[in-house]
Design a protein that fits this description.
The structure holds two protein chains of two kinds. Chain A is an alpha+beta fold. In chain A, 33% of the residues lie in helices and 17% in strands. In chain B, strands 3-5-1-12-9-10-11 form a seven-stranded mixed beta sheet. A five-stranded mixed beta sheet of chain B has the order 7-15-14-13-8. A four-stranded mixed beta sheet of chain B has the order 16-24-25-26, sandwiched between helices. The chains are: A alpha+beta, B alpha+beta.
Chain lengths: 157, 751
């Protein structure tokens, strides 16, 4: 089967790739582009570990085909910090010990950033419901929620 | 001073602070490399073909069409493992790849390595397996019956009582005292049968490895594991290799909780690599993780407890039946040992039977065996308290195990923090906070043995006076931070001067798996001892420089100082100065410690849970949750809290939603996160952690393991809360909405 030629912008860079029609965008990010910060936890859109933004919308990259990404603007965890300068969410996750194993962390950070762009002053409940699609098995979410609320506060000031 | 030279009374400078973890930035920027994140040149991608039948004889496997597919480089079946032809396959190997029989839905029967995942998947469809389907059994009670299908022959131990099927493989018994007399002295006896379903550890990272094996018998293996030395031992045995020729490097690990203490895919990747002559990467799908890794046991349990009307427990008895899949395991032994551990009892007896079923081989999950047994015991204790109108917390304090208690499983307890933990719960505002209609409060004690085990640490003093700690235990919850803290504390230097790394199998001696809540205890102990060895050497070097006795040099705040008759004679020499001169004073300086660590110190916790039950839907909402746990000494309190919160939430999930559901056909019905529902952020309140510090005499700083105990109490705490909220005593987990709703409806119909 012939491959499809796709042109995208990923974390601000123009990136082109060839993909099999059935390959997911997650497979492309990881296996072709080696952007392995985006994780595969389930492959069925249930865990959120592969969260990215596609043209500004938060999506599970395991549910998007690589071929669908043509002419799109993609942001992944690798694009979150500005050089050496961590995004406030990243810093607050460290300050609050909001990660243990850390494998869900990239997806949660991408999702939380997307929340704060829409709602800079979320309540605890709003954070909890926004992140309900991102599974974390280590922390019980407590410190994650606190880190997101604290980052939101800092970003507002 | 005790023989261990404990210093837990001293004022700590680094211990108890909350510095950033050394692997933090990598993990928030996506740079950290987990099992599936490594790519090497010329690498192949592997996929596994799994049995769709719970129990079937494998008549034949035809791989010829798959081998012909363009891009396929190797196909393996059990025939590719010489241990089968030698007739010496270990259970671990048979679990990794089926030989004559498929023993559960999802059992591996063949595997393919190809140029891409797409090709490997296509190749699986071309493998033709002929099965003869056999009768199966997945329920523990059914499997014990004499007319049950036999899952796996030849495992029955001699002491197993008669009257069961051959699926009952082992039997355990613990306890002391006169049970009949105890029950005769009770004013009230409650006896109930409980059931719990299997839960999965639910780590977000599926198992993954990358193997490269050469025909001369050497191999390199990269994998996510809780214990790469164990991976090496198991794989070397399966592949007929010498340990020295197999180097295992642990990746960052995306959760384990006990489920990554053994192997499932690594030998398959090694065999594919050997056959293809190329590196092979093998990553499980989530469906495979549920079907073919190691969930917990499921259980069926009878508990009988007698109590006087003023709340003294007069006798306790528990009969535990655990199934752990198609191979024997000892989990029920730990259940039988831990069931009544929180109590000081005159008469107690526990018995346990292990049972085989056509399910995947169970693996450890935080405090394996304890949550089930303690759930049953703590539910009965709560029912007794409710019926006798007694305060459940007071009654636990009244009957609590303490220093000097002969435990229900034999040993006599040393310093334990149970009463202090219960007292903390009693004093906490949560305990007396008002409840509204349809709300209930439950509490439960929890217990875990904790473990030490084989441990090696090397602590290198670099020429600039900074410290490199090399340890061999994968970091699953921030242990690199706590190990660095202990090294810094002992040396009297700051945390940022230390970097701790986890070495591969060829860089250190054997290290027991990251399990048994052992790492901060045992690796910490070895790190402290290694630091002391380095200090001794540094004092010796300084004595040479100063020309005084070695004994006359003392270590204080990161420097050597002259002591005794030489006090004040020389300016202190800092670690930087000593390190800078080390080449001239005898060579590089390092401290080592190798030990089979003992004295881990048991751990107790108490949980308080408030829930509200929606009587229209049967759904339970956790409103408030507080965890009280004795940490001995919290090295990095944030990560201690994290263990307490994370374990509690896993237990809440087990209590409310999580379960393995097998159909009549013996197939797993819910092998995905949509249908196997672990708690999500919106299900939960904040989980308040209260750390108690009752020093463990077995560790220089008083550390006790904290990783496992926290999953134990939630099962009963939630069960008791729901039972009190609804005034119905539940005895089966999970308390999923349909189950609770049907009990509520029955209660209404029964009037």
């Amino acid at each position: 089967m012939s491959q499809v030629h796709i042109k995208t912008k990923i974390n601000g860079d123009n990136i082109e790739f060839l993909c099999d029609p059935e390959e997911t965008l997650l497979d492309i990010l990881r296996d072709k582009l080696h952007l392995t910060g985006t994780k595969e936890g389930c492959g069925t859109g249930d865990c959120g570990a592969c969260s990215i933004t596609l043209d500004g919308k938060l999506v599970c990259s395991c549910l998007v085909l690589g071929a669908e990404a043509d002419n799109s603007d993609i942001s992944t965890i690798e694009g979150m910090s500005n050089g050496e300068k961590l995004h406030p969410l990243q810093q607050k996750f460290l300050d609050h010990a909001a990660l243990q194993c850390g494998v869900c962390t990239p997806g949660i950070l991408v999702a939380a950033k997307s929340l704060l762009e829409k709602n800079p002053d979320p309540t605890e409940s709003e954070v909890r419901y926004w992140l309900a699609g991102n599974l974390c098995r280590c922390t019980g979410y407590d410190k994650i929620i606190k880190a997101v609320l604290d980052a939101a506060k800092e970003m507002r000031s | 001073m005790s023989p261990l030279d404990n210093t837990y009374e001293k004022q700590f400078k680094v211990i108890g602070t909350r510095p950033p973890r050394p692997d933090g930035i990598e993990k928030v920027t996506g740079k950290a490399q987990y099992g599936a994140d490594l790519y090497v040149p010329d690498m192949l991608y592997a996929k596994i073909l799994r049995s769709p039948h719970p129990h079937a004889k494998i008549i034949s496997i035809d791989t010829s069409e798959a081998e012909k597919l363009d891009g396929v480089k190797a196909v393996v079946t059990s025939k590719d493992f010489s241990k089968f032809s030698d007739n010496k396959p270990s259970d671990t190997l048979v679990n990794c790849i089926a030989h004559e029989k498929a023993l559960y839905d999802g059992h591996c029967v063949a595997a393919v390595a190809a140029l891409s995942n797409t090709i490997a998947k296509s190749a699986l469809k071309l493998i033709n397996v002929e099965y003869e389907i056999l009768p199966h059994v997945t329920d523990v009670d059914e499997a014990m019956k004499t007319d049950s299908p036999i899952v796996n022959k030849g495992y029955v131990l001699e002491n197993v009582p008669k009257g069961f099927s051959e699926n009952v493989t082992s039997y355990y018994e613990f306890g002391h005292g006169d049970l009949d007399n105890g029950f005769n002295n009770a004013d009230l006896i409650v006896e109930r049968t409980f059931k719990t379903e299997a839960a999965h550890q639910g780590y977000i990272e599926p198992h993954a490895c990358l193997a490269s094996m050469t025909p001369d018998g050497k191999a390199d293996l990269w994998c996510c594991t809780q214990g790469h030395y164990n991976v090496r031992a198991l794989c070397a045995d399966i592949m007929g290799m010498e340990s020295s020729q197999l180097r295992v490097t642990p990746s960052e690990i995306g959760g384990g909780f006990g489920g990554k203490t053994t192997i499932f895919i690594e030998p398959i990747a090694l065999a594919l690599s050997l056959k293809s002559g190329k590196p092979v990467k093998l990553v499980m799908t989530r469906d495979e993780v549920f079907k073919a890794t190691g969930p917990t046991v499921s259980s069926s349990m009878d508990v009988k407890i007698g109590m006087t009307k003023d709340g003294i427990i007069t006798a306790g008895e528990a009969n535990l039946r655990y199934q752990g899949g198609a191979f024997p395991n000892g989990t029920v032994e730990m259940g039988a040992q831990s069931a009544f551990a929180a109590y000081d009892l005159k008469a107690v007896r526990t018995k346990g039977w292990n049972v085989l079923t056509n399910r995947p081989k169970q693996a450890a999950y935080r405090a394996p065996g304890a949550p089930q047994a303690i759930y049953a015991v703590e539910s009965v204790v709560d029912e007794l308290c409710q019926k006798l109108n007694l305060d459940p917390l007071e009654i636990r304090i009244k009957n609590a195990a303490k220093k000097g208690t002969k435990s229900s499983y034999g040993p006599t307890f040393d310093d334990i923090g149970l009463i202090a933990t219960l007292e903390a719960a009693k004093k906490h505002p949560h305990y007396l906070a008002p409840l509204e209609e349809n709300q209930g409060r439950g509490l439960s004690c929890g217990f875990w043995f904790n473990f030490g085990g084989d441990t090696c640490v090397t602590l290198n003093v670099n020429f600039d006076g900074t410290i490199g700690v090399t340890e061999g235990n994968p970091d699953i919850g921030g242990s690199r931070a706590s190990i660095s803290q202990m090294a810094a504390e002992e040396l009297g230097i700051s945390y940022d001067k230390v970097r701790t790394i986890i070495a591969d199998t060829n860089s250190l001696g054997h290290n027991e798996v990251t399990d048994g809540s052992r790492v901060t205890f045992a690796v910490g102990l070895a790190t402290i001892k290694a630091a002391r060895a380095a200090i001794k050497e540094m004092c010796k070097r300084v004595s040479l420089i100063w020309g005084i006795d070695e004994d006359a040099v003392r270590w204080e705040n990161g420097s050597a100082i002259p002591a005794g008759p030489n006090a004040g004679q020389f300016d202190p020499m800092s670690i930087e100065e000593i390190a800078a001169m080390s080449s001239q004073t005898g060579g590089p300086i390092a401290g080592h410690h190798e030990v089979n660590a003992e004295g881990a110190g048991v751990s107790f916790g108490v949980h308080l849970a408030d829930v509200e039950v929606d009587k229209e839907t049967g759904s339970t909402k956790v409103l408030r949750y507080t965890v009280f746990q004795d940490a001995g000494k919290a090295i990095h309190p944030s990560y201690v809290e994290g263990q307490m919160q994370g374990g509690a939430v896993q237990g809440i999930g087990w209590a409310l939603n999580e379960e393995y559901i097998y159909g009549e056909d013996g197939r797993l019905q819910n092998a995905g996160f949509l249908d196997y529902r672990i708690p999500v952020a919106s299900d939960l309140p904040m989980i308040e952690p209260v750390i108690l510090e009752i020093p463990n005499p077995g560790h220089p700083y008083g550390v006790r393991g904290v990783g496992e105990t926290s999953i134990v109490p939630p099962l009963a705490a939630i069960n008791n809360a729901v039972s009190r909220a609804t005034n119905i005593r539940f005895s089966e987990l999970p308390l999923s909405p349909p189950k609770v709703l049907s009990s509520l409806k029955k209660e209404i119909n029964d009037g």
